[in-house]
């Protein structure tokens, strides 16, 4: 499978500059992030992707959108791979609001409030990552799947800190190295 951290969001842009939470719930991609997402099409189009699994946050959906369009794939929404709830950007949007922006996607499996209302412990994110790893390892489609997720989730899932717009291959049947 290929794991991809969403491209730069407005939250990432402002937080990187100030190291302060800018108070943006479910932020969109920044201008740089939009360019990164378009550039990913060239990088990923020849990688044999047949399935895309994406977090329901706007920044992840916007990252997946040009790749899905180029490959003619309808992404699957999975809240299990959402970001760890810790900042304002980790407040999501209700399914009806997401469906207005992405009418072709199926948000019917999401609860009205699919994100965590409280700060999540690292252990809770580890549990979600282990569950997703088990699901993917049991699925015959993992080899040709792109997963678009977030920093803290991917840290728990891969044991690697992944930069915005960065991707790499991962075998979910092999446990991550303990750091």
How is this fold's topology laid out?
Layout: E1 2-5, H1 10-18, H2 31-44, E2 51-54, H3 58-71, E3 76-77, H4 95-101, H5 122-138, E4 145-149, H6 151-158, E5 167-169
Parallel strand pairs: 1-4, 2-3, 2-4
Antiparallel strand pairs: 1-5
Distance between the termini: 21 Å
User: Can you say what the CATH homologous superfamily is?
Assistant: Phosphoglycerate mutase-like
Query: In percent, how much strand structure appears in the residues?
Result: 5-15%
How many strand elements? 5
Sheet with the most strands: spatial strand order: 3-2-4-1-5
Mean pLDDT: 96
Q: Under the CATH scheme, which class?
A: Alpha Beta
The number of helical segments is: 6
The helix content, as a percent range, equals 25-40%
Taking the sheet with the most strands, its summary is:
5 strands, mixed
How many structural domains can be distinguished in the coordinates? 1
Rg computed from alpha carbons, rounded to a whole number of angstroms: 15 Å
CATH topology: Rossmann fold
* Global outline: globular
- SSE-based structural type: alpha/beta
């Amino acid at each position: 499978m290929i794991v991809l951290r969403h491209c730069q969001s407005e939250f990432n842009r402002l937080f990187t500059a100030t190291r302060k939470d800018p108070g943006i719930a479910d932020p969109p991609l920044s201008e740089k992030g939009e360019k990164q997402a378009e550039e990913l099409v060239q990088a990923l189009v020849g990688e044999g992707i047949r399935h895309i699994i994406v977090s329901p946050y706007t920044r992840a959906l916007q990252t997946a959108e040009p790749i899905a369009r180029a490959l003619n794939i309808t992404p699957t929404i999975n809240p299990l791979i959402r970001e760890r709830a810790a900042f304002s950007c980790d407040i999501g949007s209700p399914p009806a609001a997401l469906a207005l922006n992405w009418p072709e996607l199926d948000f019917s499996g999401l609860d009205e409030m699919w994100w965590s209302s409280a700060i999540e412990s690292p252990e809770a994110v580890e549990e979600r990552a282990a569950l997703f790893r088990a699901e993917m390892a049991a699925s015959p489609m993992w080899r040709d799947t792109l997963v678009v997720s977030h920093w803290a989730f991917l840290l728990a899932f891969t044991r690697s800190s992944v930069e915005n717009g960065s991707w790499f291959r991962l075998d979910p049947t092999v446990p991550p190295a303990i750091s």
